[in-house]
From TrEMBL, chain B:
This is Transcriptional regulator. The keyword GTP-binding does not apply. It holds the Pfam family HTH_3. Residues 5-59 form the HTH cro/C1-type domain.
Length: 154, 65
């Protein structure tokens, strides 16, 4: 029986050592650096006439997302409160797989039918907007499917 | 698949949460196993047999098919 005893906390600890405070500080710092870099780059490409304002706005918008991404990458998940040692053999893992398989099939259907229909209808749309829509659809579909499976089998 | 998990667990005096902690899985996993709504993977079945000190076939009763 594998019994790895680890202290768990609300924000967890870094996989490279240190406490929760250090993990949060490093995540926020890395997120700030990355969002500042991305803000400058995006502002230079998209709004050179209002460079400073655009860079600040984009960096502010990206800061929470990139800081959270850094936290997720640096986190040792075993130190997060409520984390199970063997999530891969838990029932939730099976629910996740089933929901993901359903989403994959839905995306094939929607993208296939959409591609067929829009090859005959001339509608111009931003590629970025369409891809964002597909991602949102996939996330929503996954959430609904997971919720339904969980309700049915709990 | 039918199983005797609930009986074995009660016999050992484990709560569902205690068994889940021993196995390193969620309590919901134990609930689903006991209700027969989740067929365990082979690693989980071996963990269960180790916890209860019995064979896998003592815990799980294969269906007709």
């Amino acid at each position: 029986m594998d019994s790895k005893a680890v202290g768990q906390s609300k924000w967890g600890r870094s996989r490279f050592g240190g406490g929760s405070g250090a993990l949060i500080a490093v995540s926020l710092s890395a997120g700030a650096v990355l969002s500042a870099g991305a803000g400058v780059l995006l502002a230079r490409l998209n709004a050179p006439e209002h460079f400073v304002l655009a860079a600040l706005l984009m960096a502010a918008g990206l800061l929470p997302v990139l800081s959270t991404a850094c936290w997720a990458l640096l986190l040792d998940r075993d130190t997060l409160r409520g984390a199970t040692r063997n999530p891969e053999i838990s029932v939730e893992s099976q629910w996740y797989d089933r929901a993901a398989i359903g989403v994959f099939q839905d995306l094939l259907l929607v993208c296939g039918l959409g591609g067929a229909v829009f090859s005959f209808i001339q509608i111009q749309a931003s590629l970025g907007l369409v891809l964002a829509g597909v991602v949102l659809l996939a996330l929503l579909d996954f959430g609904i499917r997971y919720f339904i499976i969980k309700r049915a089998e709990s | 698949m039918e199983n005797n998990l609930s009986a074995y667990r009660r016999e050992r005096g484990f709560s569902q949460q205690a068994l889940a902690d021993l196995l390193g899985v969620s309590r919901q996993t134990v609930i689903s196993l006991e209700k027969g709504r989740y067929d365990p993977s082979l690693p989980l079945a071996f963990k269960l047999s180790a916890v209860f000190g019995c064979k896998i076939e003592d815990l799980f009763i294969p269906g007709e098919d």
